[in-house]
């Protein structure tokens, strides 16, 4: 589901005080990292992920890969931090 501009703004507001929950290190997107991202999205719905990759294009590719594999929507990306949202239909945490 694509997010509207109003929903993105609301999610950015909610995500502002939060710290990154998952940090992608030098080894990149391993299976364990993807599993942690999936668990965090299932539990929190709205998370921040820090991608520690020096090259900007590789960072963008990593964030895009995370979104594709998890089914999450990219709310925003600033520098090394990406904010992701995936709605949990069973136990919604964030009201849009």
UniProtKB/TrEMBL annotation:
Supply the alphabetized keyword list: RNA-binding
* GO MF, one example: RNA binding
| Presence of keyword Flavoprotein | no
Q: Does the keyword RNA-binding apply?
A: yes
**InterPro entries (alphabetical):** RNA-binding_CRM, RNA-binding_domain, RNA-binding_YhbY, YhbY-like_sf
Query: Boundaries of each CRM domain copy?
Result: 1-96
Q: Name one Pfam family in it.
A: CRS1_YhbY
Output the Gene3D superfamilies linked to this UniProt entry: YhbY-like
NCBIfam families in alphabetical order: RNA_bind_YhbY
Full protein name = CRM domain-containing protein
């Amino acid at each position: 589901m694509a997010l509207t501009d109003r929903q993105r703004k609301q999610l950015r507001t909610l995500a502002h005080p939060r710290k990154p929950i998952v940090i992608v290190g030098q080894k990149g997107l391993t299976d364990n990292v993807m599993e942690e991202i999936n668990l965090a999205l299932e539990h929190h719905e709205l998370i921040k992920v820090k991608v520690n990759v020096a090259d900007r294009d590789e960072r963008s590719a990593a964030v895009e890969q995370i979104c594709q594999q998890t089914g999450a929507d990219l709310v925003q990306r600033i520098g090394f931090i990406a904010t992701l949202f995936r709605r949990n239909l069973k136990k919604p945490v964030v009201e849009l």
